[in-house]
Amino acid sequence: MLRGKQTWWFDKRPVIIGAATVVGPDEGDGPLAADFDLVHPELDMQQKSWEKAERLLMEQASDFALKHAKVNKQELSFYVGGDLMNQIISSTFAARSIGAPYLGVFGACSTSMESLALAAMIINSGSGQYALAGVCSHNCTAEKQFRYPTEYGSQKPPTAQYTVTGAGAAVLAPDGDGPVVECATIGKIVDLGIKDPFNMGAAMAPAAVDTIQAHFNDTGREPKDYDLIVTGDLATVGHGIAKDLLKRDGVPMEDTVFGDCGLMVYDVARQKVQAGGSGCGCSAVVTYGHLLKRLKQGDLKRILVVATGALLSPLSFQQGESIPCIAHAVAIEAKP
Amino acid sequence: MLRGKQTWWFDKRPVIIGAATVVGPDEGDGPLAADFDLVHPELDMQQKSWEKAERLLMEQASDFALKHAKVNKQELSFYVGGDLMNQIISSTFAARSIGAPYLGVFGACSTSMESLALAAMIINSGSGQYALAGVCSHNCTAEKQFRYPTEYGSQKPPTAQYTVTGAGAAVLAPDGDGPVVECATIGKIVDLGIKDPFNMGAAMAPAAVDTIQAHFNDTGREPKDYDLIVTGDLATVGHGIAKDLLKRDGVPMEDTVFGDCGLMVYDVARQKVQAGGSGCGCSAVVTYGHLLKRLKQGDLKRILVVATGALLSPLSFQQGESIPCIAHAVAIEAKP
User: Gene3D superfamilies in the record, alphabetically (chains A, B) (predicted)?
Assistant: First the structure.
């Protein structure tokens, strides 16, 4: 098997038997509000720090997901989680509450699908009965860590994106009711030399395209095999670039089929979110909140979620490095 | 399967067909010097920053490991990597050079065995031909990020540990010559309330004990089933505590069987390393450099590497949080 075959097939068809999402006020003000399990009216969620609020999001999303799956914490075999914080403290402290054996992962905003792919791999291998995949982000922890202190209220260019405050979690099992994880395409680093952290959509677009192409090559599928293909958080600028690149490469995407979670989670024209949403919570809350519901309702039959990640750090930026990007894609199918 | 079964069995017995280690001057001055593929005489490795030096370690260790495995970069199916840096930039930038589909992981110093366990899971599942597991750490990047600017030359209490400058990488394949990865026990978060980042050995010891106990429970094995059981980086203080806890729990360990990579990598009495080595490079260079060689020579038949991680961040410490700890264990056997 030569490189190029970067897709994992889950022949046992692991089932998402429960999922949940918990979000902040801006996401609750957006078009998908009705799809979330809990909307916090305030960004601080009555916690003493933004970081503690982010951790709470993850704990609550996990609790709801386990409840929906009718699985006790004690029955959970593994938790695969990650977030954007240094040393992924939100997931780790949530893992302390969850109590299950824990695998921390990091792929910036692509962590949502990285964790889902790994949880599906674990269940598919027969190594556990229930695996939880969950990620979170918080607008203020991300602003504070990656940009400026939140008190600054700093202005941003229109190419910048707005980190989603939200957590999403999914419980996977070898059988049960719910959508099925079919396969996952693990991305490679793509870095075309973009250095502007206020234009991460443009930086990430080529990585999304690379993974989508690899997915089609590996699986023999085409855009028409999916009812919906969504990128994680390319937002206005990046999603347009991805569409152009795919068209150039002979894979034209219809607007009805090709979406972006960063454009779905907010009313971009009305809400003050610059180019759209970002953060690993972005693709997680759209996928686990909105898209899984549409799969269950029969509105969608098969989707591909291509979560994109910009793998820079403030330090790598300060040292003049460009932004290495990645995208991981997971195909989810409604149970027939 | 109820919780408690936290061990993955690799029935296809993935083989470590090549491994390599690259270290800094202090490790080159230690008792295992002859086991490393490359010893850098200077900490900066002629790079412009400590971070670039750390990345170089990872790139070189990967190159050597692939060379030993007789695998081209282009043939590599997946790279599973991580490090201690914020947003794991060392691994990510190395992944850009390596070019293979990439899964970033974070478990602090336990990342060494987390990445090996996941790479073994991928190969065992038949999802790839060659998987690279690799981690790195650098004394000066860790000092700078977690403690004080390196220029300070700050003094430390004797319970503190010295971060290993080194990278270790292993190439796994479904068959070939080399030691075999038998199984992996994924750890849970254990946090007994210790808040002192200058005593991480004590914080991590209970996590090591929890995973060792889980491993014995899951597998039905006992200490005598292993020629050597090594913890990752508990060093003098933590290793003593782990031994006491295991004895209390009815699992006495002989000194000849129970070691610690943090005590093996340096001559702790002679070198100025406080309680001993730490960092995800610590267990990686001892395992991939020293222990694999002893397995190949027939000196050891079966070992258990229990990599320990202290999952704090400077921010979680500043916010008064205790240190959540974890340990992941991987059993490696010489091919009969």
Answer: Stage V sporulation protein AD
Q: How many helices (H) and strands (E) does chain B have?
A: 11, 14
What tens digit of pLDDT does each residue of B89-127 get? 999 999 999 999 999 999 999 999 999 999 999 999 999
**Cα(A162)–Cα(A140) distance, rounded to whole angstroms?**
10
pTM: 0.98
List average pLDDT for each run of 10 residues in chain B, which is 336 residues long.
Answer: 74 98 98 98 97 98 98 97 98 98 98 98 96 98 92 89 97 97 98 94 97 97 97 97 97 96 98 96 98 97 98 96 98 92
Fold of A180-333: Peroxisomal Thiolase; Chain A, domain 1 (3.40.47)
Q: Which residues of A touch B101 (CB under 8 A)?
A: 3, 6, 186-188
Which chain A residues are closer than 8 Å to B112 by Cβ?
none
In this structure, the strands spanning A78-83 and A131-137 are parallel
Test B87 with A101 for CB contact under 8 angstroms: no
Chain B environment of A314 (Cβ under 8 Å): 86
| Fold of the B2-173 domain | Peroxisomal Thiolase; Chain A, domain 1 (3.40.47)
Instruction: Give the residue from chain B lying closest to A122, CA to CA.
Output: B121
Task: State whether ipTM is beyond 0.95.
Answer: yes
Residue in chain B closest to A313 (alpha carbons) equals B87
Angstrom distance (rounded) from CA A293 to CA A171: 15
Give the residue extent of every domain in chain A. 2-173, 180-333
Within this chain, domains A2-173 and A180-333 share the same CATH topology: yes
Q: Give the separation between CA B277 and CA B254, rounded to whole angstroms.
A: 21
Note the pLDDT of residue A50: 97
Instruction: Kindly report the nearest CA distance between residue A51 and chain B, in angstroms.
Output: 9
